[in-house]
Design brief:
This protein has a single domain, classed as Spore Coat Polysaccharide Biosynthesis Protein SpsA, Chain A (Alpha-Beta Complex), CATH 3.90.550.10. The strands form two sheets. It has a seven-stranded mixed β-sheet with strand order 5-4-1-6-8-7-9, with helices on both faces. The protein has a two-stranded antiparallel ribbon with strand order 2-3. Helix 2 (90-100) runs antiparallel to helix 4 and helix 4 crosses helix 5. A hairpin with a 2-residue loop joins strand 2 and strand 3 (48-49). It is α/β, with parallel strands linked by helices and 232 residues long. It has helices at residues 50-60, 90-100, 118-131, 156-164, 170-180, 190-195, 217-231, and strands at 23-28, 44-45, 48-49, 65-68, 80-81, 105-110, 135-140, 143-152, 186-189. The two termini are 29 Å apart. The chain has seven helices and nine strands.
Length: 232
């Protein structure tokens, strides 16, 4: 499976040419950014807001890109689906997006993961289609990474049930939704697919660094240093 080309995002995200109508992508941007101290989605990283990086990852994977659960006014970047339960965490954004789309497979990525390569998103989506699993995520060194995640629309009722019961943890909700469909969460080893050449990072970054979350100013500084070393 060849890696999709990177997409540019001059302003508002637009649907990439040849986008598949049975899949859609959403950036989860509804967090309160308490540890960052200011709106995370609009913080510049490498000269561009984090929301732009996240949308470009989805566009680069060939997906129409939207935003779920925005706290700030992000309409200028892409269409926004607002949480029905503001403050309930990313699970609320996931449920709102699944309820609003007709796509059979929906890819979710959090706004604070700028190093995830589009090729990984594309592979996870391909894997979900081939296996028919309702929930597909990546694993690194055997540890599950909650995002990016590919979720089938059929998982919505179980995810909404978890949300309505006040159980807002995403991964636990993923496990409950998969179990309700007689499945397990499908974990794809990033190391294996990277070694086989199915996925790669355009700047040669190793898989262990792809999932660096940017939640605090110190994490932003570390990520900026990593980025500069890779493009030097």
């Amino acid at each position: 499976m060849s890696a999709p080309a990177e997409a540019s995002l001059p302003g508002r995200a637009s649907q990439p040419a040849g986008a598949d109508c049975d899949a859609a992508g959403f950036v989860l941007a509804g967090g309160l950014s308490r540890r960052m101290g200011r709106e995370k989605a609009l913080i510049e990283f490498g000269g561009r807001p984090l929301i732009v990086h996240a949308l470009e990852i989805l566009l680069g994977a060939g997906l129409p890109a939207s935003i779920a659960g925005a706290q700030a006014n992000l309409q200028a970047f892409a269409p926004v689906i607002h949480d029905a339960n503001p403050g309930a965490g990313p699970l609320a954004g996931i449920c709102a997006a699944l309820a609003a789309t007709h796509a059979q497979h929906v890819v979710f990525i959090s706004v604070d993961l700028p190093f995830v390569p589009p090729s990984l998103v594309a592979f996870l989506l391909h894997h979900a289609r081939v296996t028919g699993r309702a929930i597909t995520i990546a694993t690194v060194a055997g540890f599950a990474q909650t995002f990016p995640a590919v979720i089938a629309r059929e998982a919505l009722p179980a995810l909404a049930s978890e949300l309505n019961a006040g159980r807002n943890g995403c991964f636990a909700a993923f496990e409950a939704a998969a179990a309700g469909l007689g499945q397990a969460v499908s974990g794809v080893s990033v190391e294996c697919i990277a070694q086989s050449g199915h996925v790669f990072h355009p700047n040669g970054m190793p898989p262990a660094q792809w999932f660096l979350n940017l939640n605090t100013p110190s994490e932003m500084e570390r990520a900026e240093a990593l980025r500069k070393r890779r493009i030097a």
